[in-house]
Design a protein that fits this description.
Largest interface: A-B, 76 and 76 residues
Number of helices of chain A: 12
Oligomer: homodimer
Strand order of the largest sheet of chain A: 2-8-7-6-5-3-4
């Protein structure tokens, strides 16, 4: 008699995005003439940049001839892209060995899969509000989860509590959903805590490319001591619009040792056994992101989204609404006006301004009374949406 | 203090392919003039077919313009490719719902990941010799493994033993490494066993496209009752040369229920939480395999490899060497001449014929004294290699 993994029965169903869609569609059905603008979307909308497109075509052409055809590649990624990433980290002052870098089909996959190499009896520490995948993947494994309170008082950047002896710690900076960014000193406190407790930090850097202040860390390895306590996850999704093209990378330093085992070797073993590498074509496209031309082109896309973020934060500034994010992040997280609840404000924004966003309480208890807007729409729609927002909620 | 998953310490290091490479390279270094031919390779060598190349280019072009750009797709795959696969199964007389089909980045990933949704205390049944991934992925989870004896007496097609109450059963047909194929009656016995015991069969159909005898099953769902006891894994790797392009699919029928849970929903939950779907570009290319033109072109490639298999089996026939596989499989598995051991024969073949193959004992205890050759080389090299083989080992 085969038995299922009963931990799956403990996963809370998230109705967040389906409920958002349901309410938006219902409104649209009742008001077919309404021009509803969606600023809730967490997906990029701008096409891949020309340099990446060219490289993808080259990759496809290589597959068309016997001489250049690529079969199985290294599970951990081709050297050409690992070398590009090594150079990308060097620009941030981080020196990595290329074999500390693993190419994957996306940060989401690796953030879940990394748990394979850790024991089930580790205590997990997760911020609230949070990207739901951290909680769900650990629930699937039956691990105990403690929550870090992120709130207005700490700027949604919770700091270590030495009373909790956490084993595995999730940090996401710039944060999804709040857009908040840890500074160097704050991250150094986390690194100290992790080294003191022999914990491991899972650092989700998926939004690092939105950081424009050079004093803010874009990699946890910019902090001294991080290589003995942190694994970093990153992605081409938001950097270069790869949400539908699928490529990410994970850094597991050689100096990270737990139970006398080199964690890098465990991850290599996991990947060579349960993964077969990313498409050669995709890796060709992703490597092009790091050419001079590629860097220039992706910067234009990121600037485009940041202009939208500015449109949103300037409106909130004028209205005197508390928010975080938006400066170094595509996400803007704000307190609902007039002490409304998240869903109450969702309905009000939809009815009064025909704008769809995401209720903060969908990301955790501490998201109650907060709301998330994203900068991934067009300039035109973002400007129009925020005009309506301002009109609807000005005093 | 973070702890690692100590089950990883129980994985046996496989030195098979590194030892093969080491011995071949040493020989080459000592005999630089030798024209060494490699028939050990398990990877395809022929380029992607033109129809697939065109579709991949189209996919890339779609990513270049805002109007056609694709961001996050459905984790379980786009409907267009699931509909193509539904039609492909219909050709085999198998009626599937499109939501029973999940698109993945390859069978290897899913064969490992499927274990996430099953309890650790299931007893696993694995044939010996076997593709090492089945054993390693279960060892990583700490599951107990029992072995099915595959040998010359049963044609390397072991049948159910009702004394063992197995929960999870791996069957691979056409088999890697032996090339043996279960017939309908044999597979029906396995389906009966699994339904009788409420076990789940993991059916690895990665080599199904090599089956040319219409009386042999290419999908386990051709067997009545399989939908209540089997999950099928398949891939474009060997069908269409996607080993470096990465696309596979997994079928989880709605009728498969264990512990009162619909296993399909568990897998959907696993995939939406820990996976973000396959690249749109790749899915476009894979779907082109099922066009009329695509089918014709991939058939030519498969025929090319089968011609090599025939070259190999005809030589073995002339030498009177026992073998299986090669008819409906790219693999030929034979008894080493003169009762040599696997590695002894490896060295003899390399020295006498300058041909590299794979020692059977690398796939398990029952592989001792056996040897694997593959049909993925060129016609010219395969013909030359088998000429030398025949000369070296004829009586």
């Amino acid at each position: 008699m085969a038995h299922i993994n009963s931990n799956y029965l403990n996963i809370k169903e998230s109705y967040l995005f389906s409920e958002v869609a349901k309410r938006a569609n219902a409104y649209k059905a009742e008001h077919p003439e309404a021009d509803v603008i969606r600023l809730g979307i967490g997906d990029v909308t701008r096409p891949l940049c020309p340099t990446v497109i060219d490289a993808l075509h080259e990759g496809v052409d290589a597959m068309a001839a016997t001489e250049t055809f690529k079969g199985y590649g290294p599970e951990q990624g081709y050297d050409f892209i690992k070398e590009s990433l090594k150079a990308y980290y060097a620009e941030k002052g981080v020196d990595l060995d290329k074999d500390e870098i693993f190419i994957s089909d996306g940060a989401k996959s690796d953030l879940g899969n990394i748990l394979d190499i850790f024991s089930k009896d580790n205590l997990v520490l997760v911020p609230d509000p949070v990207y739901p995948v951290y909680v769900d993947t650990n629930t699937m494994d039956g691990r105990e989860i403690a929550y870090l309170e992120a709130n207005e008082a700490n700027g949604f950047l919770p700091m270590p509590n030495y009373d909790i002896k956490a084993d595995l710690i999730y940090l996401c900076s710039p944060n999804n959903p709040t857009g908040a960014v840890y500074n160097r000193e704050q991250l150094a406190e986390w690194v100290k805590y992790a080294n003191d407790n022999n914990s491991v930090i899972f650092f989700d850097a998926a939004y690092e490319c939105f950081v424009s202040d050079p004093s803010l860390p874009r990699s946890i390895y910019e902090i001294e001591g991080a290589k003995t306590c942190a694994i970093e996850f990153c992605s081409f999704s938001k950097t270069a619009g790869f949400t539908g093209t699928r490529c990410g990378y994970t850094v597991v330093p050689f100096d990270l040792i737990r139970d006398d085992c080199v964690v890098n070797k465990f991850w290599l073993r996991r990947q060579t056994t349960k993964f077969n590498g990313v498409s050669y074509i995709t890796q060709k496209g992703a490597a092009a992101v790091f050419t001079e031309e590629g860097k220039k082109q992706i910067a234009e896309n990121i600037d485009y989204y940041k202009q939208n973020a500015k449109t949103i934060t300037e409106t909130l500034d004028r209205l005197g609404i508390w928010y975080c994010g938006g400066k170094h992040s595509p996400y803007i997280w704000f307190k609902c006006p007039d002490n409304m609840g998240s869903w109450e404000f969702f309905d009000a924004l939809l009815e009064k301004a025909n704008v769809v966003g995401t209720p903060g309480e969908g990301f955790g208890e501490n998201g109650k009374g907060y709301f998330r807007l994203t900068s991934f729409s067009t300039h035109e729609n973002t400007i129009e949406a925020m005009k309506r927002f301002e009109k609807a909620f000005s005093k």
